Amino acid sequence: MAVAKTNQANISGDDLVVAAQNLVSADLEREAVILNLKDGVYYGLDPIGARIWHLIQQPLSVTEIIETLLEEYEVDLQRLSYDLLGLLKEMAAKGLIQVRNGTAS
After folding, report:
1. Is 32 in contact with 49 (CB distance < 8 Å)?
2. Which of 1, 45, 51, 68 has the fewest beta carbons closer than 10 A?
3. Can you give the pTM of this predicted structure?
């Protein structure tokens, strides 16, 4: 069983990420809009953010997300990892995703 992480600042490759419940999202062209039903706040995602949002509708490890994006986009691994972790930390802080320790059994 995966354990919920208490410190989102330490998201790692083995951690599982999934979209939180109590959210409604919609695609707008290649972008996405997310409504947090708890606080009524809307969030917008650019095309790459929208792709990540689609990926995490089912639990995926951070490593799996990185591998998928490396296959789909021409981007440096270090830059992708940095940007992805930044986005995931921001999304976790706003309650848009759940991050679970993927190494727990």
Report:
1. yes
2. 1
3. 0.85
